[in-house]
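Mods, move this if it's the wrong board.
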Amino acid sequence: MEKIVRQSMLYDFYGELLTEHQKSIYEDVVINDLSYSEIANLNGISRQGVYDLIKRCDKILEDYESRLRLVERFETAREKIAGMRDTIAELKKEENSAEYESLLARMDAMMVDLLEQF
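Not the wrong board. Structure tokens:
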């Protein structure tokens, strides 16, 4: 399951850089959850051809990620947003406490870190 999530993320960010044929086959595997045999029959190619194309696309997409790091930066931003949500929840609980100003400062720092990512 984790592999499919990774493939989907990479495809979301870099899929437009694949050829139309590569995109079509890759989408059938990753998004439409078709088997290699089903895709082979639909496209008039061998199951091995589908397997090879998927491996090649995985390598291409991973190569883009290793150079550009867009998925990594997105994941970091998502984690920071989750941290901000947690801080907001704490702020709601601690609004009248002495920690309120400290929590506000922490929230500001998280927002600055997030903006620096992009």
